[in-house]
Amino acid sequence: MASETVAVMWFRRDLRLSDNPALAEAARDHDRVVALFVLDHRLWGPAGPNRRWFLAGCLRGLRASTDGNLVIRGGSPAAAVAAVASVAAEVGAAAVYCAEDFGPYGTARDHAVERALADAGSELRRVGSPYAVPPGTVFGSSGEPYKVFSPFARAWRAHGWPDPLRPTRPRWVEGVATDPMPEVGEPSVALPEPGEDAAGRRLEAFLDAGVHEYHDRRNYPGRDATSRLSPYLKWGCLHPRQALGRLGRGQGEETFATELCWRDFYADVLFARPDTVRHAFNPTMEAMEIDTGVAADERFAAWCAGRTGFPIVDAGMRQLRGEGWMHNRVRMIVASFLVKDLHLDWTRGAAFFMEHLVDADLASNQHGWQWTAGTGTDPAPYFRVFNPVVQSRRFDPDGSYIRRWVPELAAVDGDAVHEPWVTDGGLFERTDDYPRPIVEHDVERVEALSRYQDLRRR
Hints:
The protein is an alpha/beta fold. The chain has three domains: about 5-130, 3-Layer(aba) Sandwich (Rossmann fold); about 130-165 and about 195-270, Alpha Horseshoe (Serine Threonine Protein Phosphatase 5, Tetratricopeptide repeat), CATH 1.25.40; about 285-455, Orthogonal Bundle (DNA Cyclobutane Dipyrimidine Photolyase, subunit A, domain 3), CATH 1.10.579. About 50% of the residues lie in helices and about 5% in strands. α5 (about 105-120) links the parallel β4 (about 95-100) and β5 (about 125). The longest helix has 22 residues, at about 250-270. The mean pLDDT is about 95.
């Protein structure tokens, strides 16, 4: 009788058993499978407490799904690379299976793992990805990667994606030595329930009650009208195929599919331009004048704390601190305010988001910021300056979002909640709890556009 063959399934951003092509192929081609997760300190350290807590919960769920057989190894980047090869050698695995990673660090790490496995007589097999259409798949007519979303979206839809796979339940290898689960304290904010099962329940709830009105309601932060699926997509507790495959026809469904397309677009942009993690996609914008020094740092601190005096901005920043999440419309408002009202570097805001967001995804975060900051893929972006009061009145018309997250304004009546500094109610004479605006928007808008014109004249 032939001896049994063993494979290693290296889980990364695919912490699920359902619709997992790499796991399905490993189980198909081998008799038994080792479930492995490598806790790379290079990724764990900068994640921030919210994302670490959520990831730890996802790993506990995955360990339960693998009948307690999830192997965890970890350490420095060098140790993380060695861990994969070490586990493969321990169990005599002919191959290690994983979903392809397209990020700058992940790509380099995987090449190092591939070399280490080859030296030991094994191989790395990349199967599938965290995206409906993997980065580097579709190109413009010139053969170059897309730089504008609309043509990318057309190519993305034309390319399509396979149907989701059924859950895979292989014979797990038991008894492989493992490090303990990462220790994380209880979160100080209200975070979503982690794991594949929770992702499935959240998807069902959205498809049953939210997606049909998504187009009309998604921009209103005071309503529970978004999918709240982003943390599960981040860690692959849910694959976008699993949502796309369930969407029916309708404007809400089309709009939600487009939002998933944005996620793939930004991954494609980062894959083509890994330098844009920290540098402007449009290199001309690198020379834009920004404010620095003590006064700039004080304004940044006020923005981080939700103490700018602009209610919609402050509500968003407090939601970030209170939930580890922020409504997407408000993300654009607070980003515009940081860059075009406070004249600060977009990378400062992007880093703050990466620290606090439970759903922080490098490609979506960095390029979402660049879109708003006017340094990114939008062909004519810098003239877009969000007026926080206009945005507030339009998308939080009854002030419910503001009153929830800025309780100092809970008693402010009616429309005055959007612009409390002009109210006749004497708010600032009655309380010192809420600050006056730290800048004048109309003045700073003119200043932002003036700096842009100066840049263009150089």
